[in-house]
Design brief:
alpha+beta; five-stranded antiparallel β-sheet; two-stranded antiparallel sheet; 3 helices; globular
Length: 110
Amino acid sequence: MHSHLFVDGLDVITRSDGRMAGLAPGLLLRPGGPLHPRDTARTVDVAAEEAPDPGPDRLTLRIRLRGETVVWSDLMYPGADDMVVEEVRFRLDQYLGEIERARTASAGPP
């Protein structure tokens, strides 16, 4: 199972590099996992080359917490208007709620 990271209805992974598949939800979405923001900015792997076998190429983004805002940067994908998106921002409470919703959904029925 692969993760899909959507921002404004667009799959960031597919739009960034079609060769990539999102890392497993259990890895990305776990409490304290790579997508959880911290006070110190860090670069995290979110996808890996899928075919023919998982390759060495990785898709990364930089995550940092600025007050009550989560910032993803070092991006490079075409947005809905075909302009390059290099950074996105999320309200912390909404971001954490969405991670929890996705984690619960990926776990399946209890």
